[in-house]
Specification:
Blueprint lengths: L1 H22 L10 H6 L8 H10 L21 H4 L7 E2 L14 E2 L4 H11 L8 H6 L6 E4 L10 H7 L5 E5 L3 E9 L20 E8 L1 H13 L11 E7 L9 E5 L2 E7 L6 E4 L7 E5 L13
Parallel strand pairs: 7-10
Antiparallel strand pairs: 1-2, 3-11, 4-5, 4-11, 5-6, 6-7, 8-9, 9-10
Length: 303
């Protein structure tokens, strides 16, 4: 009788273990990280990377805004960003750049460097330099790869991901300057071919988070403008904080969206239709991968 009891107990424990394995994303490797704790607050509620990060690491990161943070050229995390919080502030662009013109009232958010500087400073590190300075003139010991001969990043994207650390920045002239932060790979967040067979090829490719153009994010804020009278006088933005993948073959795309005359191939991540768009490297003329800081701002010598 005692033997039967232990056999039943063993079966119960094995079933519990199996349920625990099924409940956690398979093969996940992402660890709790101070940069990710900040970066993911700018994603929208229900974003799969935010959900999986919390589930895997035990973090309790909450989005600042239900719809995430929109792109705004020249936008910084200053007092203007928080004026109407928890609603979005509204501002006219500071200068005329592409579709962002001074005569248009727009929902205020962050631009690419405003976002990455926010991540660094909220994590306790110094804000990074101006983007062109980072590419061309900043001390070379901070560079992992550059566009210079003999210093270029590997063409094998899985090898590239292996050599990067969460928090490293990719700064590129594309042809306009842009900055993105490395956050790991699809496999790190527990994605598998079971989520989408087309993901299997890209499970070890580098993922980056950034404030930039993204037609799915743009649609989200266009809908907000159309449905919330508070924003009814605003012109639409063309993106916001999002996760992208590097190195995807456009021929593998599940969906292709267009915005501002550009095409955006992407892979569907979940049953909600979240799209992981490729951030194309084709137009990149100059770039550097910039190693994340390791010394907190409070520990630096005071001038």
């Amino acid at each position: 009788m005692l033997t039967s009891f232990f056999k039943a107990l063993r079966r119960a424990l094995l079933m519990l273990l199996a349920l625990m394995v099924l409940a956690s994303p398979a093969l996940a490797q992402v660890e709790r990280n101070e940069f990710l704790d900040v970066a993911f607050t700018c994603l929208e509620k229900g974003n799969p990377f935010l959900l999986r990060y919390n589930q895997i690491t035990g973090a309790e990161v909450e989005p600042l805004f239900e719809l995430g943070v929109p792109y705004f050229f020249g936008g910084k995390a200053d007092k203007r960003f928080w004026t109407q919080y928890p609603r979005y502030s509204q501002r006219h662009p500071y200068q005329n750049v592409g579709p962002y013109t001074r005569d248009k009232l727009m929902i205020y958010g962050l631009d690419c460097s405003g976002y990455t500087c926010y991540i660094y400073t909220e994590a306790g590190y110094p804000a990074h330099d101006a983007l062109m300075t980072m590419i061309m003139r900043t001390e070379r010991e901070h560079h992992i790869y550059t566009h210079h001969e003999g210093e270029r990043m590997p063409e094998d994207f899985t090898l590239l991901a292996d050599t990067l650390e969460v928090g490293d920045l990719f700064v590129a002239a594309h042809p306009n300057l842009h900055v993105l932060m490395f956050i790991g790979t699809l496999a790190d967040y527990g994605f598998t071919a079971a989520d989408n067979p087309k993901l299997e090829k890209y499970l070890e490719y580098p993922l980056v988070i950034h404030a930039g153009e993204n037609p799915q994010v743009a649609d989200r804020f266009t809908n907000l403008i159309l449905t919330d009278e508070f924003y009814s006088d605003c012109y639409p933005t063309y993106g916001g904080v999002c996760v992208s993948i590097l190195g995807m073959d456009p021929a593998d795309a599940d969906v292709v969206m267009t915005s501002l005359g550009k095409t955006y191939p992407g892979l569907v991540l979940d049953d909600k239709g979240t799209i992981l768009f490729d951030w194309t490297l084709e137009l990149t003329a100059y770039y550097c991968w910039y190693r994340r800081p390791t010394v907190k701002a409070a520990d630096l010598p005071q001038e």
